[in-house]
Amino acid sequence: MAAKNREWLSWIKVIVISAILALGIRTFLFTPIIVDGPSMLPTLENGDHLIVNKLNYTIGQPERFDIVVFHATQKRDYIKRVIGLPGEHISYQNEILYVDGTPVAEPFIRERVTSLPAGSHYTHDFTLENMPGGYEKIPEGYVLVLGDNRTNSTDSRMIGLIPIDQIVGEAQLIYWPLPHFGLTT
């Protein structure tokens, strides 16, 4: 009987340690998220399951074109792409992103922009000054984010700049559905 009790105690220890490790990994390193809506098309589709790396921004800062998850409200997280970094001026004119007056290519939307019918817009012209807050430069501790589906995305153009401390992490891996499996770009 004592051997059976030791075996049960051993199993309980394994389960408790495994649960603590899983909770620690999810809390501090990685967390899953499901894309809800079309705002990141064509890069991410509604229903894609992703792994978010929470460690990247604990030891570093967001970089241009990172796909990030952030707390948009107390109850809702959004997933968008970082376009503007602290200290930069951002504007769009004639489907071209300008960072501090220099054009910057966006390869992840090139196909959509080049396939537009004449007179159509994928990203309507705007400047940082026209956005909520009316900033001339992005302040320290903030980033400007846009969805890849510029015609159907609630992003910095509407909600303003995003505090870096509200970023959960970087979405790096699509794991479901299997045909979409791979790194985000």
From TrEMBL:
The chain crosses the membrane at residues 12-35. One of its GO terms (biological process) is signal peptide processing. Residues 9-176 form the Peptidase S26 domain. GO terms for molecular function: serine-type endopeptidase activity; signal peptidase activity. It is found in: Cell membrane; Membrane. The active site is at 39, 80. GO terms for cellular component: plasma membrane. This is Signal peptidase I. The lineage of its organism: Bacteria, Bacillati, Bacillota, Bacilli, Bacillales.
